[in-house]
Amino acid sequence: MKVKGIKRGKFIELLEDIAIEDGVEVSVEFVxxxxxxxxxxxxxxxxxxxxxxxxxxxxxxxQIDQERHADIGRPVNFDDHF
Length: 82
What we know:
Strand content: 5-15%
Number of strands: 2
Strand order of the largest sheet: 1-2
Structural class: alpha+beta
Keywords: Plasmid
Number of helices: 2
Distance between the termini: 64 Å
């Protein structure tokens, strides 16, 4: 079970209810989220711009843009409404 909490002095306030009784001994593992985010950013920087000069990706996005802006319209029969 993984539950987030906030440290307040010597206590950790859980951010959700859990199904264990008061007084039950638990083990707490601290995760350095700052280092995790730094590592994630470093990994992301490695792939940023990877498709920058990829003509296939450029063509795909051009086709998507063209389809998004196409005026497809629909037939309307005014005789049925009066």
